């Protein structure tokens, strides 16, 4: 090999650093593309939310009149990764700020809401009632719901999983959740839920409240 050839062999190619930078930039863009957050889900209209029949779901609920206030059929999918297979049946109140939301919750907890809650399977074999439980007020133990479906009070609960992804969260609202009853371990299928209020509560007329059915998220 002559001297010129040896020089060509050992001298760096000036284009290589630029090529490396371009490759690294492309890799970074691909990584950012893979980890970019998904777009915010579309918030459902009231009619769209009322038409949803797959858990998680919500329904407007009036709390001032005694008698049946819920009669809804729904599909329960298996609990997803990160969800606890416990079906929670409850409600939520809201306000435009935390102070208003807390005041609305207090309107419920001052006298609470005795209810009768029943959950049934829906299928070719006919309706079969599902055994429910409710939490004691101290949240330390659970009590079986009897044959009459009586649940004497509500208890505080955390956020139901998947509500935001389902379009059931209004960003400008502050929500507070209360629980009626639970089913554990929940099994996927089609079900019918009925809820009756045991007493008149005229002071709750017009309260911003909704039924909520769904799984809780696992603690991280």
Topology:
Layout: H1 3-10, H2 15-35, H3 46-51, E1 57-60, E2 67-76, E3 87-95, H4 98-109, E4 115-121, E5 128-129, E6 133-135, E7 142-144, E8 150-151, E9 155-157, E10 174-183, E11 189-197, E12 209-214
Antiparallel strand pairs: 1-12, 2-11, 3-10, 3-12, 4-5, 4-8, 4-11, 6-7, 9-10
Distance between the termini: 66 Å
Number of domains: 2
What fold name stands as the CATH topology of the largest domain? Jelly Rolls
Major β-sheet profile: 5 strands, antiparallel
Say how many strands there are.
12
Any idea what the shape is?
globular
What's the CATH C level of the largest domain?
Answer: Mainly Beta
Helix content: 10-25%
Average of the residue pLDDT scores: 86
Q: Write the CATH architecture name of the largest domain.
A: Sandwich
How is the largest sheet built, in terms of strand order?
1-12-3-10-9
Structural class, from helix and strand content? alpha+beta
**Helical stretch count?**
4
Using only CA atoms, what is the Rg? 27 Å
- Low-pLDDT stretches: 5-10
Write up this protein.
- The structure is a single chain.
- 21% of the residues lie in helices and 31% in strands.
- With 220 residues, it is of the alpha+beta class.
- The chain has two domains: 33 residues; 169 residues, Sandwich (Jelly Rolls).
- Strands 1-12-3-10-9 form a five-stranded antiparallel β-sheet. Strands 2, 4, 5, 8 and 11 form a five-stranded antiparallel β-sheet that branches. A two-stranded antiparallel sheet has the order 6-7.
- Strand 6 and strand 7 form a beta hairpin.
- The longest helix is centred in the first third of the chain and has 21 residues.
- The chain is globular.
- The N and C termini lie far apart (66 Å).
